[in-house]
């Protein structure tokens, strides 16, 4: 039986929306469902209006839903603002005693969340356990998986904490069952599955990919939405033998990462657009010294401080061209958590093999959202260190040509200290040995050497993902976190009688070599879908391919697309 249910949990910052959504997500992921959770929260520690939305399906899902089936309102503002988002058959559970909201609608279920939390758990802090129990009751699910989860979650805090949370969950479950006047609220009928699924955020997947790639040094300065990457790696530093350096600012972070990489270990940093602005000078240093570097840029709304906790795709052109002069680089943009994991492994391989900076573009939607996946297989990518000399060269010549001119542009790289030769590196133009020069002939030779790397890089860039109807009248074009929306929207447009396909790029610069005639018919209209104002990728795509883009579906209010929104706007363009 096909299932597609959206649960929205709304309230003030600090009321536990993420706790409720995370718990529900884990319960259904363990039952074998596909789950997508996205967060919508204000840039404040307490108060404001925030929500987390859990989408549960029996088929893969990586995009927000259009309508809400179950609204869990932890405060009155959620009722006022989010009630219109309910679908026709939607149900809302709320605290009638606390909110003062009154309704005779049988789909409006009043449960005294705070009173039950105090009575059963001894504190209003337990309100999210009450709410989770109530939500499961309205969905017709057993309570036992929640009780088991609470024991796992709070077991380290002692039996009393576990029992109070379980009592609170049980009270919410029973009260919702008594209060609901509907025979069918928003029940989910699921077949039993022996196999559960992993549930990871995009940031966790990126961090895991870096660990699987052999990360040994991380330097960073917290900046949302990249901070969870640093937090996850910090939690694993002893287990994986990582040097974790919380830097004083982004300038220090990127320079430390470059220094660690120069010394021979895999190193990275992560930031957002504002922090990357501070890293730009050092990015040029990595380009000139041909030092491998991986930087995650998790985009948010700009310019300046902008929208710190909202999503946007407006830094593409920035990261493609940032720094001084010209040098080769790679820009990757995964579309979901699984792609993020493998993308990070590939980023380190490309950085080492071609001795270039690799920028991995995420955004608030990708980094803060949770996705289900079946498994992760690091062996699928492996570790490739490239032209790296590790053996002791004590008997080798005293002069090592670190920047030797080669047909590929990649020079053998040696770990400092493994030979008698002094290793020279500087930000000035240099000779093959690393000495400063302004000789025009050497300048041309070294410049061309560096840029020759692009030929090899292009051969490693993966083709875009394609799907939907072939042949088609509409081809939705996108990159990065729009993957799930492109997949669903193309299917919805096709069901309206207009054949629609999609083309999604997760490796965007340099643009991969691809036979676009395979997905374009004589009358195909290309429509770009991007979370920015100008359609940055659409312009880049047209520049590099010569193909015209018929229309652009753009969004820049800090919120992600939904499949219905994209499908509707695409049909309007015809």
Could you explain how this protein is built, in words?
There is one protein chain. The protein has 574 residues and is α/β, with parallel strands linked by helices. The protein folds into 4 domains: 4-179, Pyruvate-ferredoxin Oxidoreductase, domain 3; 200-380, 3-Layer(aba) Sandwich (Rossmann fold); 387-460, no CATH class; 465-573, Rossmann fold. Helix content is 37%, strand content 21%. It is built from 20 helices and 22 strands. It has an 8-stranded mixed β-sheet with strand order 6-5-4-1-3-2-14-7, sandwiched between helices. A 7-stranded mixed β-sheet has the order 9-8-10-11-13-12-20, sandwiched between helices. Helix 12 links the parallel strand 10 (266-271) and strand 11 (293-299). Helix 4 (113-121) crosses helix 5 (127-138), helix 8 (202-212) packs across helix 9 (227-235) and helix 11 runs parallel beside helix 12 (273-289). The chain is globular and about 85 Å long.
Given this structure, which CATH class of the largest domain is correct? Answer: Alpha Beta
Distance between the termini: 34 Å
Structural domains: how many: 4
Radius of gyration of CA atoms, rounded to a whole number: 26 Å
Contiguous runs where pLDDT drops below 50 for at least 5 residues:
none
Q: What strand line-up does the widest sheet have?
A: 6-5-4-1-3-2-14-7
Structural class: alpha/beta
Overall average pLDDT:
94
Any idea what the CATH architecture of the largest domain is?
3-Layer(aba) Sandwich
Write down the CATH topology of the largest domain.
Rossmann fold
Percent helix: 25-40%
Main β-sheet description? 8 strands, mixed
């Amino acid at each position: 039986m096909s299932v597609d249910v959206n649960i929205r949990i709304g309230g003030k910052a600090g009321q536990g929306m993420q706790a409720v959504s995370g718990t529900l997500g884990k319960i259904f992921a363990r039952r074998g469902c596909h789950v997508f959770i996205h967060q919508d929260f204000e840039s404040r520690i307490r108060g404001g209006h925030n929500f987390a939305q859990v989408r549960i399906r029996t088929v893969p899902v990586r995009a927000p839903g259009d309508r809400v089936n179950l609204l869990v309102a932890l405060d009155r503002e959620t009722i006022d603002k989010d009630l219109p988002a309910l679908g026709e058959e939607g149900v809302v559970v709320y605290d009638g005693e606390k909110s003062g909201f009154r309704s005779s609608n049988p789909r409006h279920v009043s449960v005294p969340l705070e009173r039950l939390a105090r009575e059963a758990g001894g504190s209003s802090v337990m309100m999210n356990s009450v709410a989770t129990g109530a939500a499961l009751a309205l969905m017709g699910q057993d309570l036992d998986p929640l009780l088991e989860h609470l024991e796992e979650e709070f077991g380290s805090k002692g039996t009393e904490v576990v029992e109070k949370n379980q009592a609170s969950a049980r009270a919410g479950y029973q009260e919702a069952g008594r209060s609901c006047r509907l025979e069918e609220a928003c029940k989910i009928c699921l077949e039993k599955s022996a196999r559960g699924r992993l549930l990871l955020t995009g940031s966790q997947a990126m961090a895991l990919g870096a660990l699987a790639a052999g990360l040994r040094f991380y330097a960073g300065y917290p900046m949302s939405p990249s901070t969870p990457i640093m937090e996850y790696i910090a939690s694993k530093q002893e287990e994986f033998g990582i040097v974790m350096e919380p830097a004083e600012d982004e300038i220090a972070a990127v320079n430390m990462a470059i220094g660690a990489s120069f010394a021979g270990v895999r190193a990275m940093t992560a930031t957002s657009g504002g922090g990357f602005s501070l890293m730009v000078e050092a990015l040029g240093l990595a380009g000139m010294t041909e030092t491998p570097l991986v930087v995650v840029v998790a985009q948010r709304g700009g310019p300046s401080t902008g929208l710190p906790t909202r999503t946007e795709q407006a830094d593409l052109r920035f990261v493609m061209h940032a720094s001084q002069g010209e040098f080769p680089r790679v820009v990757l943009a995964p579309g979901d958590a699984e792609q993020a994991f493998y993308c990070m492994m590939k980023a380190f391989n490309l950085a080492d093999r071609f001795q270039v900076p690799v920028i991995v573009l995420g955004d608030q939607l990708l980094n803060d959202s949770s996705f289900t996946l079946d498994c992760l297989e690091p062996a699928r990518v492996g570790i490739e260190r490239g032209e790296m000399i590790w053996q002791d060269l004590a008997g080798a010549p005293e002069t090592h040509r670190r920047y030797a001119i080669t047909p590929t542009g990649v020079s053998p790289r040696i770990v400092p200290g493994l030979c008698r030769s002094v290793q020279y590196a500087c930000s000035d133009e240099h000779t093959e040995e690393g000495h400063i020069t302004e000789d025009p002939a050497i300048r041309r030779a070294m410049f061309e050497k560096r840029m020759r790397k692009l030929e090899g890089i292009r051969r490693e860039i993966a083709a875009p993902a394609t799907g939907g109807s072939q042949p088609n009248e509409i081809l939705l074009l996108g990159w990065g976190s729009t993957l799930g929306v492109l997949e669903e929207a193309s299917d919805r447009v096709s069901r309206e009688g207009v054949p629609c396909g999609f083309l999604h790029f997760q490796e965007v610069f340099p643009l991969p070599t691809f036979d676009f005639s395979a997905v374009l018919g004589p009358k195909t209209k290309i429509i770009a879908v991007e979370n920015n104002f100008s359609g940055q990728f659409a312009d880049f795509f047209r520049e590099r391919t010569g193909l015209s883009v018929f229309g652009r579906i753009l969004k820049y209010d800090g919120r992600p697309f939904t499949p219905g929104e994209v499908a509707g706007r695409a049909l309007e363009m015809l």
